[in-house]
Amino acid sequence: MPEIKVTPLGAGQDVGRSCILVSIGGKNIMLDCGMHMGYNDDRRFPDFSYITQNGRLTDFLDCVIISHFHLDHCGALPYMSEMVGYDGPIYMTHPTKAICPILLEDFRKITVDKKGETNFFTSQMIKDCMKKVIPLNLHQTVQVDDELEIKAYYAGHVLGAAMVHIKVGSESVVYTGDYNMTPDRHLGAAWIDKCRPDILISESTYATTIRDSKRCRERDFLKKVHESIERGGKVLIPVFALGRAQELCILLETFWERMNLKAPIYFSTGLTEKANHYYKLFITWTNQKIRKTFVQRNMFEFKHIKAFDRSYADNPGPMVVFATPGMLHAGQSLQIFKKWAGNEKNMVIMPGYCVQGTIGHKILNGQRKLEMEGRATLDVKLQVEYMSFSAHADAKGIMQLIRMAEPRNMLLVHGEAVKMEFLKGKIEQEFSIDCYMPANGETTTVTTNPSVPVDISLNLLKREMALGGPLPDPKKPRTMHGTLIMKENSLKLVSSEQALKELGLNEHQLRFTCHVQLQDPHSDADTLHRIYTHLKSVLKGYTIQHLPDGTVIVESIVIKVSSSTEDSNTKVLLLSWSYQTLIYNGLLPGG
Amino acid sequence: MTPRLLGAVEDSRAGNKARREQKSSGERCCVSKANCCQLIYQQLLLLKMKLYCLSGHPTLPCNVLKFKSTTIMLDCGLDTTSVLNFLPLPLVHSPRLSKLPGWVSKDGTINLGKELKECAGRVFVDAQPEFCLPERELLDLSTIDVILISNYHCMMALPYITEHTGFTGTVYATEPTLQIGRLLMEELVNFMERVPKAQSATSWKNKEIQRMLPGPLKDAVDVWMWKRCYSMQEVNSALSKVQLVGYSQKVELFGAVQVSPLSSGYSLGSSNWIIQSHHEKVSYVSGSSLLTTHPQPMDQSSLKNSDVLILTGLTQMPTANPDGMLGEFCSNLAMTIRAGGNVLVPCYSSGVIYDLLECLYQFIESANLGTTPFYFISPIANSSLEFSQIFAEWLCHNKQTKVYLPEPPFPHAELIQTNKLKHYPSIHGDFSSEFRQPCVVFTGHPSLRFGDVVHFMELWGKSSLNTIIFTEPDFSYLDALAPYQPLAMKCVYCPIDTRLNFHQVSKLLKEVQPLHVVCPEQYTQPPLTQSHRSDLMLELQPPPMPYRRCSVLNLPFRRRYERIYILPELANSLVPSEIKPGVSVATVSALLHSKDNKHTLQSVPKPPPMPPSKKRKRVIEEPPVALAPKPMLSGAVALEAFLATLQKHGITEVKVEETADGHILHLQAEDTLIQLEEDGTHIVCDSEPLRTTLRDLVLRFLQKL
Question: Which residues form the Beta-Casp domain (chain A) (predicted)?
Answer without folding.
Answer: 245-363
